[in-house]
Amino acid sequence: MMTRARNRLLYFGAVIWLLLTVTLAVWWMVFGLLQAGQLGALSSPEGQRLERVQRMIVWEGVTFVGLLIAGGVALVISIRREQVRQHAVESFFMAFTHDLKTALASLQLQAESLSEDLPEAAANPNMARLLKDTVRLGVQLENSLYFAQPEGHLLVEPVAISTFIARTAADWPELRVRVEGDDTVLADARALESVWRNLLQNAVIHGGARTVTVRVERRGDDRATITVIDDGRGAPPRVVRTLGRPFKRPAVTSGTGVGLFVCQQLARRMNGDLRFGGSGGAGFTAVLELPVAR
Predict the structure, then answer these.
(1) C-beta separation of 212 from 169 below 8 A
(2) Mean pLDDT of 31-45
(3) pTM of the model
(4) Half-sphere exposure of 130 (CA within 13 A, CB side)
């Protein structure tokens, strides 16, 4: 919605600018002709000089109006070309990311099958690292898809919170997840699972957490609060204030910030909200609010 509104605003601004400037130029030309006629009638009975002045005003006015119209048309065409180019880049990026994610999912499935069939492969640290990297890349690719398509359609339906939490437990075997309470919210199941995966990845990679506690509480009659608390290193207030801003890196070892930005955008598109908190050494906290299913 934001991108479409911005595009309409750009077109509207260009058209308003064109109409306003052309109207002012035409008014200037008419006013100049009237003033020249009045001055000529008062100062000289001969009309030759008056005709020359009027002709000069007409040609200058026509040239000025023509340049304004040409500039306005060029501006509208430039806006349109930029939007077409942006759409083409987004389409290519989405198709490329989707194909890459499909290949990555196949690689992860084969690695998991290999770990289950061969005990010596499961004990190999390289295999464990491979599985972790595939999960991490899968989350990054999912973020890229949502980031490249900010207006993508979300299917809002009743989703049990415990359902998407249980589905991702196997992706982070070193992380213990404790769930306190449950509820059914109105959300897009895929988008909600992406938010959860980003929060778990943030807890493991950037916080070094070993335990994540999820508290589900009902706030009023129409809102559910999902509080995610990990036991990691946390983040100081100055860093917390920058979370959710894309490409804002509070430290050299930090990520791009796209993941938490996508999480906040998805929460808002599902008529919810996502806030972050925490302090150094006290873990990291994320509070997700969503409407409940009636």
Answers:
(1) no
(2) 64
(3) 0.62
(4) 19
